[in-house]
Design a protein that fits this description.
The complex is a heterodimer of chains A (about 375) and B (about 200). Chain A has about 375 residues and is an alpha/beta fold. Chain A has helices at about 120-130, 130-135, 150-160, 180-195, 210-225, 230-235, 255-270, 270-285, 285-290, 320-330, 355-369; strands at about 10, 15, 25, 25-35, 45, 75, 80, 85-90, 105, 110, 140-145, 165-170, 305-310, 335-340. Chain A folds into two domains: about 10-175 and about 285-369, Rossmann fold (3-Layer(aba) Sandwich), CATH 3.40.50.1820; about 180-280, Rna Polymerase Sigma Factor, Chain: A (Orthogonal Bundle). An eight-stranded mixed β-sheet of chain B has the order 3-2-1-4-5-8-6-7, sandwiched between helices. The two termini of chain B are about 30 Å apart. In chain B, α3 (about 45-55) links the parallel β2 (about 40-45) and β3 (about 60). Classes of the chains: A alpha/beta (about 375), B alpha/beta (about 200).
């Protein structure tokens, strides 16, 4: 049986200087693969996960026993066809599925790191995962892809390693976290930190965990992943297992019950400190600033072929922000395609069964392989 | 591939950079890429067409020429192609202006409203003309600013736009349009193809 202790991981010996200045080495990167790497090693796709994802892209996640986060897109015969491609996904550093993160043990004290874990960035995550290419002896990936924070990693990867990906599909993302994005993340972080059980991050030794805070953070975030229209169509004002209002603060409405459920199942699989660190990394993400205000400079030397995808109802990373990336790529003379997929499912569209979206990815990959 | 695209393709030099505005299903782009070693980009308003182009491995961006031409840096292409869509814009004048900002040369084709069949239709039937190149009814046509070959010819001289080549197309036959035969060509051509430069 796969447990958190025996999931696949590499231990990276090579020191990595983080953006905060701290140097890390001998740290684990947990990963999973799907499909087979061919002899020429030209069929590898590196998928980057979003805020609360992990390395278990497809099939059944052995830890949570739920479907992998991108099961609609990745698998045999699917848009990212694992009969054809070798899909690699790693848990980001800062995460809580086996990679180096705040739930890692500090060997000098034998205690969990908690908030002694360094503040990491998207750049750090990408640089850490780059070691997987060396591990698999892959000279160039056929494609790198990911949605939301995964898309940010795609952009950073091309900027850092301009000749290491033949194609790139950043989905529903941005080159620079907006004030609204930061505000929403801060709401989540404050909910966690306001939970007394958080105990300044040192809850592993107390047998209590900030479940309430983390659940609220998840509830708030979940709303941002959906669209107003999607919510209205799915829930409307429908009541939860009752015929009339109860004149109380119970979950009268289905949407309340749904959010509470989302919050409660999330705390079983996710670490509150990881949530703080990863949202921080997203907030710090500003590829435009990294290139002194000119995003096209980030892609200037790259030959990577891009396909940018956004969704009509995504208000978290709206089409306009995705188009900024397209404009920068055009300015750099890059090879870029772009499509805005019509969907009422909000930001979450990239994780769901949206046929037009899945068809677009499939066509792009097939045309370029 | 239709005759119009063959003529456009002949107007474009090999090994150049071309932006196809309103590239449709990418037929012209694919031809230019495969036969003339041309680095092509496309701008297309229909999601369906964008998807088809992506499936052909073409670099196509979903967008509207009236808003999205500005995203391309000045003179980032050698040619920009606009096939039979000029009449569908709110401001054809501005679009022509933008086209000549992103590329040195523009190839613009227009369905000729001065064609005799169009004139006869309006003159005798008294209703808005419907022809092979103008298949829609007045109430559902995307065309807002129909013009004739003569109109476009005059527009270019008024705006100081150089007309490098003016080609008339009629029933698969091509001929050159000049000042002398302008009235004649304006009456007997279905399509005008113009290579212009600012």
């Amino acid at each position: 049986m796969i447990t958190k202790e025996n999931i696949k991981k590499i231990i990276v010996k090579k020191p990595l200087t983080l953006d905060c200045g701290k140097i890390i080495n001998n740290y684990p990167i947990a990963y999973e693969t799907y499909g087979t790497l061919n002899e020429k090693k030209d069929n590898a796709i590196l998928a980057f996960h979003a805020l609360t994802g992990d390395q278990f892209v497809s099939g059944t996640n052995p830890i949570t026993n739920k479907s992998g986060w991108w099961s609609y897109a990745v698998g045999p015969g699917k848009a990212i066809d694992t009969k054809k491609f070798f899909v690699i996904c790693a848990n980001v550093i800062g995460g809580c599925m086996g990679s180096y993160g705040p739930d890692s043990i500090d060997p000098t004290t034998n205690k969990t790191l908690g908030t002694n874990f360094p503040v990491i960035t998207i750049n750090d995550m990408v640089n850490a995962q780059y070691n997987l290419l060396e591990f698999f002896k892959i000279d160039q990936l056929f494609c790198i892809t990911g949605g939301s924070m995964g898309g940010m990693q795609v952009l950073q990867f091309v900027a850092n390693y301009p000749d290491k990906a033949k194609t790139a599909i950043p989905i529903a993302c941005t080159a620079s976290h907006s004030a609204q994005n930061i505000a929403l993340n801060e709401l989540g972080r404050q909910a966690i930190m306001a939970d007394q059980n958080w105990n300044k991050g040192n809850y592993f030794n107390t047998n209590l965990s900030p479940d309430k805070g983390l659940a609220i953070a998840r509830m708030a975030a979940h709303i941002t992943y959906l669209s107003k229209k999607g919510l209205q169509e799915k829930f409307g004002r429908k009541l939860q297992e009752r015929d009339d209002l109860k004149f109380s603060f119970d979950a009268d409405f289905q949407i309340e019950s749904y959010l509470r459920h989302q919050g409660s199942v999330f705390v079983d699989r996710f670490d509150a400190n990881s949530y703080l660190y990863i949202t921080r990394a997203m907030d710090y993400f500003d590829l435009i600033k990294q290139y002194n205000g000119n995003l096209s400079e980030a892609f200037k030397t790259s030959k990577t072929k891009f396909f940018i995808i956004s969704f009509t109802s995504d208000w978290l990373y709206p089409t306009s922000e995705n188009k900024e990336i397209v404009i920068a790529l055009n300015s750099a003379g890059a090879d870029v395609g772009f499509i805005e997929i019509t969907s009422d499912k909000g930001h979450d569209s990239f994780l769901l069964d949206v046929p037009d979206f899945l068809k677009s990815i499939k066509k792009f990959l097939e045309a370029n392989y | 591939m239709k005759k119009e695209f063959k003529i456009i393709s002949q107007l474009i030099e090999n090994n150049t950079r071309v932006l196809d505005v309103g590239c449709g299903d990418g037929t012209l782009m694919k031809h230019l890429k495969e036969n003339k070693n041309i680095d092509t980009r496309g701008l297309e308003i229909s999601k369906n067409n964008v998807q088809t182009c992506i499936g052909k491995g073409l670099a196509v961006i979903e967008g509207n020429a009236e808003k999205d031409l500005q995203q391309f840096p000045n003179l980032s292409f050698d040619y920009v192609v606009l096939s039979q869509t000029l009449q569908a814009f709110y401001s054809p004048e501005k679009v022509i202006d933008d086209l000549l900002k992103v590329a040195n040369k523009a190839i613009v084709t227009i369905p000729n409203f001065g064609y005799w069949k169009v004139r006869i239709h309006l003159l005798f039937k008294g209703t808005m003309p419907i022809t092979k190149n103008l298949p829609d009814e007045w109430y559902n046509t995307p065309n807002l600013h129909m013009c004739t070959i003569k109109d476009f010819f005059n527009f270019c001289s008024k705006k100081n736009i150089k007309l490098y080549k003016s080609i008339a197309l009629h029933e698969q036959k091509t001929s050159t349009i000049n000042k002398i035969n302008l009235n004649f060509k304006n009456l007997f051509s279905e399509l005008g193809i113009f290579l212009i430069e600012k």
